[in-house]
Amino acid sequence: MLRFHELRQNPVSVTFRDGTGATITVVAERLRQGLVKITCDCQRQSKAGWCQHCLAVFSDREVFEDNKHREAFERIVGGTFLEEAASKLAKALDTFAVAYRHMKFGRPADLDLGQLRKFADQAHHASSAAEHLVLALEDFIHELRLRPSRTVRAKSDGAAHILAGKITEQLDAENASMDHPHIVAGTPNTSVEQNKPATPTNSPERLTAPDLTSASRSKDKERALEMVQRALEKDLDLE
In angstroms, rounded to a whole number, what is the distance separating the alpha carbons of residues 53 and 40? Predict the structure, then answer.
């Protein structure tokens, strides 16, 4: 993905005729941090948050004047989360269209067991495809609205979980080394405490040391969270 300052042409506008014959203009503009703003002058995008024209510029090469026009658009959207969401949406649309077509033309003509079972299987596939289509469309709409999509949140949460796990392991290792000092091999495991007489439980001289374990772990967690936050901010700052 090209960085913001590397783009020679930004934004890029695409004007074409849709299936109804109306002239449509779609504008793609790269923003900071890898975000892409797509706007269309049709009414559906303003009402529904998306339109087929915004998807067409990703999936239909015929809407561009020539290869240079297409390449200018690809330099803006290439490698971005919006391009990934558009690709997944296009595939989900194709999958649903095939599943729905099979279900539609496979409707049982009679109360036949084989026909009903086949139709039930096709309906199940169509339902599953529709669910994937809903999720793909939600992600695409979120990206168009310049909000973190489900895919972005999942990747961020996964990176945070892995990073937090590594930090926790490191902190546990440090705490373990502090709690259990190293004993040199061959040295008898003796201590001064073994030579001291045991203090009776009811002796007034017996004092209980304060438990600092919970406080220490709380500070360790706060330090780990700060490290995770700094790491994520560095990773997500694409520009």
Answer: 7
Number of structural domains found in the chain:
3
Residue 100 banded pLDDT, cuts 50, 70, 90: very high
CA distances from 139 to 25, 100, 149, 191 (A): 23, 22, 5, 63
Residue 45 lies in a domain: yes
Residues in the chain: 239
Q: Same structural domain for residues 74 and 114?
A: no
Q: If you compute the radius of gyration of the chain from its CA atoms, what whole number of angstroms results?
A: 31
Task: Work out whether the CA dihedral 74, 75, 78, 81 comes out positive or negative.
Answer: negative
More confident site: 227 or 97: 97
Pairwise CA distance, residues 97 & 104, whole Å: 10
Other beta carbons within 10 angstroms of residue 206's beta carbon come to 9
Q: Are residues 3 and 74 in the same domain?
A: yes
pLDDT in tens, 11-57: 899 999 988 888 999 999 988 888 999 999 898 887 888 899 999 99
Distance between CA atoms of residues 6 and 11, nearest Å? 13
Query: Cα–Cα distance between 72 and 42 in angstroms, integer?
Result: 23
Q: What is the pLDDT of residue 76?
A: 92
Q: What are phi and psi of 39, to 5 degrees?
A: -125, 145
In terms of residue numbers, what domain contains 98?
Answer: 81-147
Angle, CA of 74, 78 and 80, to the nearest 5°: 140
Q: Are residues 163 and 237 in the same domain?
A: yes
Query: Is the model's pTM score more than 0.85?
Result: no
Alpha-carbon distance of 97 to 110, in angstroms, equals 25
